[in-house]
Design brief:
The chain has 264 residues and is mostly helical. It has helices at residues 4-19, 24-52, 70-89, 94-103, 107-140, 142-145, 153-179, 183-200, 207-211, 215-223, 235-263.
Length: 264
C-alpha cells in the first residue's frame, strides 16, 4: 500500500514543477498578491498625508495599527485563494484527469498537497507584506500613520493571525475547486461568497443572526482588523471557527470528489 505522506510529498513536488518557470503563478498571481495591496495602501497613505500637511484645510484622522493592513488582509488572501481554487479545478480537465488518478489514487493527498503549497505561499506573502507595510507606513507618512507600529500588540497579532487566515483560506479555495470543476465558476463562487454574500446577508430577515456565523467575516475580525462586525466566538475562537469550517469543507469536498471518481 502506498504511503500517503509520500503521495503528499509527490504532490508538492509536482505542483512546484507544474508552476515553475514563466507561468501564471509567478508572473501574475504572486506579483499581484504582493503588488496590489502595496499600491493601494501606499496610494491612500500618500493622499492622506498630503491632505494632513495642508494647514487648516482638512482634518485627517490619524490611523492606528488596527486599521493599517486592511488591503493586505483583503487582497493578498483573496488572490491566493482564487489561485488555489483555479489550480485545483483544472485537474478535472480531460487531459489531466487520468494522469491525476494514476499519480494520486487517494484524491485527498493531491488536494492536501495543493493546500499546503498555495497556503504556505499565501502565508509567506502576507507575512512579508505585513512587515513592509507596518514598518514603512510610520516612516514614510508620519502625520497620518505615526501611531502605526509593528511592535505594538495589534502588530504582533497580525503577524500570526493574517498568515493563518491566508493559509486556511486557500484550503477553502481547494475545497471549492474540488466540487466545482470549472475554474471560472469556482472563482466566481468564491468571490460572490466572500465579497457579496457575507456582507449582504444582514439585509435579509434574521440576517444579523446568520451573519454572526459568516466564516470570512469572523476570520477577518479575528485578525484584529477593526470592523463593524463583532467576532461571534471572540477573536481567537473565531479564528479557530474559520479553521474548523475550512477543514470540514475540505473533507466533504474531497469525499465527494473521490465518490465521483469511483463512479467514473
Amino acid at each position: 500500500m502506498r504511503n500517503p505522506l509520500a503521495d503528499i510529498g509527490r504532490g508538492l513536488a509536482a505542483e512546484w514543477t507544474r508552476t515553475g518557470g514563466r507561468g501564471f503563478l509567478w508572473l501574475v498571481a504572486v506579483p499581484l498578491t504582493l503588488g496590489l495591496p502595496l499600491l493601494i495602501t501606499f496610494g491612500i497613505a500618500g493622499v492622506a498625508e498630503r491632505f494632513a500637511a495642508i494647514p487648516g484645510q482638512l482634518q485627517v484622522t490619524s490611523v492606528s495599527t488596527t486599521n493599517a493592513v486592511y488591503w493586505v488582509i483583503t487582497f493578498a488572501t483573496g488572490i491566493m485563494m482564487v489561485t488555489a481554487a483555479f489550480a485545483h479545478a483544472t485537474r478535472s480537465r480531460e487531459n489531466l484527469r487520468d494522469l491525476d488518478a494514476f499519480l494520486f489514487p487517494r484524491i485527498w493527498t493531491a488536494a492536501l498537497a495543493r493546500w499546503i503549497f498555495y497556503g504556505t505561499l499565501a502565508a509567506v506573502c502576507s507575512l512579508v507584506l505585513l512587515v513592509v507595510v507596518l514598518t514603512a507606513l510610520p516612516a514614510l507618512f508620519p502625520l497620518v500613520y505615526g501611531e502605526v507600529s509593528l511592535g505594538d500588540p495589534a502588530g504582533w497579532r497580525y503577524l500570526w493571525t493574517v498568515p493563518t487566515y491566508a493559509f486556511t483560506a486557500c484550503g477553502i479555495g481547494i475545497a471549492v475547486g474540488s466540487v466545482i470543476r470549472t475554474p471560472p465558476a469556482a472563482i466566481a463562487v468564491l468571490l460572490f461568497w466572500v465579497y457579496v454574500a457575507e456582507n449582504s446577508i444582514s439585509l435579509f430577515p434574521d440576517g444579523y443572526t446568520l451573519q454572526a456565523y459568516a466564516p470570512f467575516l469572523n476570520a477577518v475580525a479575528a485578525t484584529g482588523q477593526e470592523l463593524a462586525f463583532l467576532p461571534r466566538f471572540g477573536r481567537n475562537g473565531s479564528l479557530l471557527y474559520f479553521v474548523a469550517v475550512a477543514v470540514v469543507l475540505f473533507t466533504a469536498a474531497v469525499t465527494v470528489a473521490q465518490w465521483r471518481r469511483r463512479r467514473g
